[in-house]
Hints:
Blueprint: H1 7-24, E1 27-32, H2 38-48, E2 52-55, H3 59-73, E3 89-94, H4 98-107, E4 110-112, E5 124-126, E6 129-130, H5 138-143, E7 148-151, E8 154-157, E9 161-164, H6 172-181, E10 186-188, E11 191-197, E12 200-202, H7 211-232, H8 240-257, H9 263-273, H10 275-282, H11 284-315
Antiparallel strand pairs: 1-3, 1-11, 2-3, 4-10, 5-9, 6-8, 7-8, 11-12
Helix pairs in contact: 1-3, 9-10
Amino acid sequence: MGFKGTKAEKKAVYDKKLCGLLEEYSKALICVADNVGSTQLQQIRKGLRPDSVVLMGKNTMMKRTIRTFSEKNGNSDVLNLMPLLVGNVGLIFTKGDLKEVREEVAKYKVGAPARVGLVAPIDVVIPPGNTGLDPSQTSFFQVLNIPTKINKGTVEIIAPVELVKQGDKVGSSEAALLAKLGIRPFSYGLIVQMIYDEGSVFNPAVLDLTEDDMIEKFAACVSTVAALSLAVGYPTLAAAPHYFVNSYKNVLAVALATEYSFPQADSFKEYLKDPSKFAVAAAPAVSAGAVAAPTAVEKEEPETKAEPEEESDEDMGFSLFD
């Protein structure tokens, strides 16, 4: 049962509860609670216990309590919550892993019918098939230009039809047809809008980032800093490797163009003098095979030529002038 008392007493109890949560918890999820009923909210509370606490209330009361708490405790980080308290929102204070809590909250969704005037959060598509409705109900389908046919005394939809598009308002005809078909196209629950973690506020999409994503983004930022440093001529740690490599290239170019040399430039000078040395060293297997093949042919050729010579000696064993 809820607390019974005057309005001032209820505000004092709520203020004390929120101050206790702000002092105990350093992490919170700011959730939108549109179209979430009290029974559904109670199920969410039970599912998140004991590591998390769901707190709903008027935005003005929450802002006033947060401001008072910050002044008394000198904690200015909690003030970052105030700009987020807009609309029908609630707070989920937690000591658990933020990603796991968000996934747990997403499980508690309840199907809901399409009411007239409701803005569709998703596209509503009616699949083809038998509707189970008698032929007298075809007027609904004709109004919405849905192709149908009568099959075994019932109305059958021929092809899938996009009834309502995302962002459009549900009309009376669409709502009546979905109700007749028993379709509850929408589902509602607490939607995590922002994350609060020890004074930092960020989008919940950050929780989906993996270690590889972080490394990739960090490498991209380092490359950007290095490029900017090189462009303006301002030395930074990110651009240091590029400075060393470019300096080495310049010194190497001077060494190749003059008589000056150093150990790291000797191999380049040798290559420019006689590239064939490096070509032979790079492909020893190919050169060995090329040499072995003619040798085998040379050994076979004397054997094949020996037979005709012996035949020639036998045929010419006498003189034509004898």
